[in-house]
Amino acid sequence: MKNIVPEQTRVYLPIVDHDDVFPVGRVYCVGRNYAEHSREMGDDPERDPPFFFAKDTTCVVPSALSETTHIAYPMASSQFEYEVELVVVLGKGGRNMSLEQADDAILGYAVGLDMTRRDLQSQAKKKGRPWEVGKSFDQSAPIGPIFLKTDVLKEQLSNAQIGLKVNEELKQVSRISNLTWSIEEVISKLSEVFELRAGDVIMTGTPENVGPVVVGDTMRAWVDHLGEINITVTD
């Protein structure tokens, strides 16, 4: 028996100082997990339960720390926006996970971007439709190399700075401590609606001041202790 069409290419993320790589499974995203971003998007920033959406695995663009990655301006949009995020990758799965189990499931961390076709997302929201058209499209999730979890790194990230510059102009800056829902809470809540698996990727939310980029712009995104990635938009 053979495939009737060619298999799609599998996506892998490199691991810092390690020969192994991380095979990307499902990609989950958390909506509005910083209070100020909730306000700028017109929501109440109180601790409503986190809500989730997904990107396809093929959205992921592995992005090296030492070089510039190019992504194309997406089709069908005139409002292409950045969202810098702390990314968590899972080495274990489960359902209805406790906070302790959620913490134990974390394999490592990376810096990433949840690129968004904001105009298409806004149109979908107005009509009560799913967000995929605005969120899940080619090259919409550049992600840096994975730093494996250690007790020291976990502590460092608890109040690490997260930020983004466009053409070296500061656009987003906050602290991981400003997450409305902690990393462990996000994983635990997500496991109440999906059975999580090793290989899953979770983008944990973006700070305030999201905004647009155009062809030729370069974004520099970072999380302290996880390095930075540089992404240039092409036509």
UniProtKB/TrEMBL annotation:
Domain Fumarylacetoacetase-like C-terminal intervals: 27-233
Keywords: Hydrolase, Metal-binding
A GO MF term: hydrolase activity
Record has Metal-binding as a keyword: yes
PANTHER family: ACYLPYRUVASE (PTHR11820), FLUTATHIONE S-TRANSFERASE (PTHR11820:SF90)
Protein name, as recorded: Fumarylacetoacetate hydrolase family protein
